[in-house]
Design a protein that fits this description.
The chain is an alpha+beta fold. It has nine helices and ten strands.
């Protein structure tokens, strides 16, 4: 190919690539930050594990609540046979017995949460065929034993209530952990999302710079061909165009790499293509620092988790105090027993069955074990209280720092915006000088790079402000853009 035609062919090819990239971009699917969050929440491995932990805690509590309802059970022994020869002390002789029996036991058991007692109703119905060698008699008949029983612990803590409360706190802690992970995921997705946007803007800025260099190259080419400008200007213009094209191609590579990394983060297919559509406009967000701190101290889930930890440690203290404790147990039982050879006459002559029992456990000496364990648990409680106070201070400091950063970033956005305007005006003025032959191509390239740098700085300042505003939302659990609190997740679908 003729050397004089190579630059023109390169320009035509570059224009074709620009048009091709624009057409490809138009076919890409737009992806908002909300859609990206939805994909990440459904596909993130960490969120899946946290969701399963939440489901496990919920089902454990459901199981405990179910266990506190009336429990029905039925056990059946269809047939049983035994033959024994034993020495009978009453008659001072060896005696052989043969017994065949069949019975069923029906039980209704009801835990009583208020007192930690168990109330049960049992009914045992059976048939017995028994022979004794001593009497040389066979006894046959039906029997039925109906009884109402109460088992009541005394002088000790309510274990049923404590276990139920622990499971409720475990579920609340799992819900808080899920919400915390969700906010952390939102922060990570936003950072990755805005990084893609940053690379997307860098690509657009590089594209504009390349187009500007194409125009300036055409201008200098016409001048050189007409003999108005020196041939050296043509060499510099070709170098500037090649550098601008290289920057544009590098931006394309960085943009595609950023998109692939983002797909991995949110769990998106690597074969899907997209273009980010962020709402990057920065509106004035009024923030009351006192209100922000109050919201953080009232709503931060880490503080709630710390309070749960303190309460759980209190439960440990209750258990430790019950070690080697004085306690008792009261057992009551009332019922009827009847037997007869005929099924319908079982309760013809019933017998009352009553029993009452009281047992006491009295510790005597444990060599100071209980006292030492209580002191160790009280130290854990005090440590948990100190950690709670430290968490409060960390939250206050974090909110204050974010607030100051937002004020500073707000000023930087205004400065960066003005710098872009000034850089664009400067470039336009110097482009006219370049067209009139009053400026070299090397100097024009400097102004082009200055404009591109200011545009990138402005984009970065907007992204930094958006991310810091999200950080304030996470720190306070209050959305200052929407002016509404952030509600923690209470449950998830299986």
């Amino acid at each position: 190919m003729n050397k004089e035609l190579r630059p023109a062919a390169g320009i035509i090819l570059s224009c074709f690539l620009l048009i091709f990239n624009v057409s490809v971009s138009s076919s890409q699917k737009g992806l908002t930050i909300g859609e990206a969050m939805q994909i990440a929440e459904n596909n993130s491995p960490n969120m899946k594990r946290t969701r399963l932990n939440l489901i496990r805690s919920q089902e454990n509590l459901n199981a405990q609540n179910a266990a506190l309802k009336s429990q029905f059970s039925l056990s059946v022994n269809p047939i049983g046979f035994s033959q024994n020869r034993e020495f009978n002390e009453l008659i001072s002789e060896w005696n052989t017995t043969r017994t065949t029996e069949s019975y069923g036991l029906f039980t209704v058991s009801q835990p009583i949460v208020l007192t930690d007692a168990v109330l049960s109703l049992t009914n045992r119905f059976g048939y017995t065929d028994s022979y004794s060698e001593f009497t040389d008699r066979t006894t046959k008949g039906f029997s039925n034993r109906l009884s109402l029983n109460l088992n009541q612990p005394l002088f000790t803590y309510n274990r049923t209530k404590l276990q139920l409360k622990e499971l409720q706190l475990a579920l609340e802690n799992a819900q808080l952990n899920y919400a915390i992970q969700l906010l952390a995921l939102e922060k990570g997705v936003n950072q990755a999302y805005y990084y893609v946007y940053q690379q997307q803007q860098s690509l657009e800025i590089a594209r504009q710079a390349y187009q500007n260099m194409l125009q300036s190259y055409e201008v200098i080419k016409i001048k050189v061909d007409a003999g108005i400008s020196a041939r050296e200007e043509m060499f510099q213009a070709e170098l500037n165009l090649a550098s601008s094209k290289s920057e544009y191609e590098n931006s394309q590579v960085n943009y595609e790499n950023a998109k692939d990394d983002f797909k991995i983060i949110i769990g998106m297919s690597l074969y899907d293509d997209f273009i980010v559509l962020p709402n990057i406009n920065v509106d004035t967000v009024k923030i009351d620092i006192s209100f922000a701190i109050d919201q953080g101290l009232a709503n931060r889930m880490e503080l709630i988790q710390s309070r749960i930890n303190i309460e759980t440690t209190q439960f440990d203290l209750i258990r430790i105090k019950a070690l080697n404790e004085f306690k008792g147990n009261l057992g009551l039982s009332v019922g009827l027993f009847g037997d007869n050879e005929k099924f319908g006459n079982v309760y013809e002559s019933p017998t009352d069955n009553e029993s009452i029992s009281l047992s006491l456990s009295i510790p005597l000496w444990d060599w100071g074990e209980r006292r030492s364990r209580i002191k160790a648990t009280e130290a854990n409680i005090e440590s948990a209280n100190i950690s709670y106070e430290e968490e409060q201070n960390d939250i206050i400091l974090g909110i204050r720092q974010v607030y100051r950063n937002l004020l500073n970033l707000r000023n930087q956005i205004g400065i960066a915006q003005q710098n872009v305007k000034n850089a664009r005006l400067t470039y336009d003025l110097n482009l006219e000088k370049y067209k009139n032959g009053d400026l070299t191509g090397m100097d024009l390239n400097i102004y082009q790079n200055q404009l591109s740098g200011k545009q990138l700085s402005y984009t970065n300042s907007l992204i930094s402000y958006k991310l810091e505003l999200l950080n304030l939302k996470i720190q306070t659990l209050y959305d200052f853009e929407k002016k509404e609190p952030v509600t923690p997740v209470k449950s998830v679908n299986k």
